[in-house]
């Protein structure tokens, strides 16, 4: 059970990191954001 929770936490962290990378990318590329 602890392992499952750990995996879920890691998954959430990875998802959050991806979201931050996307925001950074879109901030640098207004045209892509508008598309």
Short description:
Helix content is about 90%, strand content about 0%. The protein is built from 2 helices and no strands.
Topology:
Layout: H1 2-28, H2 30-34
Description:
This protein has 2 helices and no strands. The longest helix has 27 residues.
What is the first-to-last residue Cα distance? 43 Å
**Which structural class fits the helix and strand makeup?**
mainly alpha
- Estimate the global geometry from the Cα principal axes: rod-shaped
Name the helicity range.
over 70%
Largest β sheet strand count, sense and barrel closure: none
Percent of residues in beta strands: under 5%
**Mean pLDDT, rounded to whole units?**
85
- The radius of gyration is 14 Å
Count of the separate structural domains? 1
Number of DSSP E strands: 0
Task: Please provide the ordered H/E string of secondary-structure elements.
Answer: HH
Low-confidence stretches are: none
Number of helical stretches of at least 4 residues: 2
Question: Which terms would index this structure?
Answer:
35 residues; mainly alpha
């Amino acid at each position: 059970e602890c392992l499952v929770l750990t995996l879920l936490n890691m998954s959430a962290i990875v998802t959050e990191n991806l979201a931050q990378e996307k925001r950074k990318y879109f901030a640098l590329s207004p045209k892509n954001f508008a598309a």
